[in-house]
Amino acid sequence: MANKIQIINGPNLNMLGQREPEIYGSLSFEQYLEKLRPKFPDIDILYFQSNVEGEIINCLQKVNDYDAAIINLAGYSHTSISIADTLKAIDKLVVEVHISNVHAREEFRQKLITASACKGVITGLGLDGYELAVRYCIQNNFAG
Ligand code: DQA
């Protein structure tokens, strides 16, 4: 059976392509997925986006549905103790991605509450960060 990677995008990432394109680019995530999936034909890349904290937690808690997760919690990365608690409670490889370089932006974006509960963080490499995270999961055999 194919390994499954669950991508989870948080608030406002459903607006990629329209939202501040000078920061986040002009592609929607669906358009990006069309390019990403064929690069990994042996991996099942699942995608979930929500603007609602509890829905993100519910998705993360379904650990039997995926082998690794790639998360961009957007604004919740800086605020959500609840999602950080979920990440600590699950025994899965999780990589955090940010499209923009949060360290080169406002001070409030530099605190990543969820990052310490993840394996690592990729920030500032645009949408390529997701592909790099997929490669990391494969190279490390989905082991957290
Ligand atoms: C983001 C960075 C966050 O600070 C911001 O709230 C987002 C997107 C990124 O991918 O660069 O919504 O996570």
Q: How is the CATH topology named?
A: Rossmann fold
Main sheet, how many strands, which sense, barrel? 5 strands, parallel
Spans with pLDDT under 50 lasting ≥5 residues?
none
Provide the structure class. Answer: alpha/beta
Q: Rg to the nearest angstrom?
A: 14 Å
What is the arithmetic mean of pLDDT? 97
Name the beta content range: 15-25%
Q: What is the first-to-last residue Cα distance?
A: 20 Å
Pattern of helices and strands: EHHEHEHEEH
CATH architecture: 3-Layer(aba) Sandwich
Overall description:
With 144 residues, the chain is α/β, with parallel strands linked by helices. The chain has one domain: Dehydroquinase, class II (Rossmann fold, 3-Layer(aba) Sandwich). It is 29% helix and 20% strand. The protein is built from five helices and five strands. Strands 2-1-3-4-5 form a five-stranded parallel β-sheet, sandwiched between helices. Strand 3 (68-72), helix 4 and strand 4 (93-98) form a beta-alpha-beta unit. It is globular and about 40 Å long. The chain starts with a strand and ends in a 5-residue tail after the last helix. The mean pLDDT is 97. 1,3,4-trihydroxy-5-OXO-cyclohexanecarboxylic acid is lined by residues 12, 72, 74-75, 77, 98-100, 102, 109. 1,3,4-trihydroxy-5-OXO-cyclohexanecarboxylic acid binds next to loops.
